[in-house]
Amino acid sequence: MKLYKKESVQYVNASLDECWSFFSSPKNLQKITPENMGFQITDYDGKSMYPGQIIQYKVSPLAGLKLSWTTEITSVQDKSYFIDEQRFGPYSFWHHKHFFEATATGVKMTDVVHYGLPLGILGRIMNTLVVKGKLNEIFAHREKMVDKLFNSK
What is the mean pLDDT of residues 132-142? Predict the structure, then answer.
């Protein structure tokens, strides 16, 4: 299986406490996910992220195709980072690291996603034609929403 990597960095005009509070709450995921993805949390325990937490979603990444996705929060270091990994869903492999670092003007957020797709060569073609672009769209939308929520004050 071929692994792909997506990285993004965003600077947030907020305190580390504010930033961590927002991003460590699964209920806020919907606020920063594109509406056309039909993102909906179907099950989680209502708590801030902790190792072992399971979160279940429904998502429509492609025109009307509704998929179930289950992630586990595998690691959390308070106000520093958390990691989510797919347990069931559209990817063969999904490992997403979220880093938070205080700066003189706010917080530097860094995301590093490693992902793999099923179906061998067909998965590689789908990555080139669809998946890579869709992930870029999702992260661009998230950046725009985070700017609106935190950087336009």
Answer: 95
| Residue 88 tokens, joined | 């069931």
Based on the structure, what is the number of domains in the chain?
1
**Backbone phi, psi, residue 95, to 5°:** -140, 115
Query: Is the alpha carbon torsion for 46, 49, 54, 58 positive or negative?
Result: positive
| CATH number of the structural domain spanning residue 145 | 3.30.530.20
Q: How confident is the model at residue 153 (pLDDT cuts 50, 70, 90)?
A: low
Of 112, 49, 61, residue with least CA distance to 91: 61
Are 144 and 152 contacting, i.e. CB atoms less than 8 angstroms apart? no
Q: For residue 84, how many other CB atoms are within 10 A of its CB?
A: 21
Domain that holds residue 111: 3-151
> What span, in angstroms and rounded, lies between the C-alpha atoms of 57 and 38?
10
DSSP assignment of 48-62, as one string?
Answer: PP-TT-EEEEEEEEE
